[in-house]
């Protein structure tokens, strides 16, 4: 088996879905399935085991995204 280093951030962590229920009004969260797949969506009972709020996107990154799309609507 390969020994790979997986970078993680201490400032972003997932919350146990049974111990910390997410706000039911939340339309978009990071959710982790029982199979270890992280996605953006809403939690599914009996399928998802953890969740977190979406990270903030800095304005500098938003500006860069807009420039890369060549969009005037940004």
How is the secondary structure organized here?
Blueprint: E1 15-16, E2 29-33, E3 38-41, E4 48-52, H1 59-69
Antiparallel strand pairs: 1-4, 2-3, 2-4
Put the structure in a nutshell:
The chain has 74 residues and is α+β, with helices and mostly antiparallel strands. The chain contains one helix and four strands.
Unreliable residue stretches? none
- Count of individual beta strands: 4
Compressed to H and E, one letter per element, the order equals EEEEH
Beta-strand residue fraction = 15-25%
Helix content: 10-25%
Main attributes of the structure:
74 residues; alpha+beta; 4-stranded antiparallel sheet; 1 helix; 15% helix
Give an overview of the whole structure.
This protein is of the alpha+beta class and 74 residues long. Helix content is 15%, strand content 22%. It has one helix at residues 59-69, and strands spanning 15-16, 29-33, 38-41, 48-52. It has a four-stranded antiparallel beta sheet with strand order 1-4-2-3, with no helix packed on it. The radius of gyration is 16 Å and the shape is extended.
């Amino acid at each position: 088996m390969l020994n790979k280093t997986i970078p993680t951030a201490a400032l972003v962590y997932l919350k146990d879905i049974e111990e910390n229920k997410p706000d039911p009004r939340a339309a978009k969260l990071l959710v982790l399935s029982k199979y270890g797949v992280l996605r953006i969506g809403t939690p599914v009972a009996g399928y998802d085991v953890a969740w977190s709020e979406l990270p903030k996107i800095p304005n500098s990154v938003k500006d860069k995204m807009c420039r890369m799309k060549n969009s005037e609507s940004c």
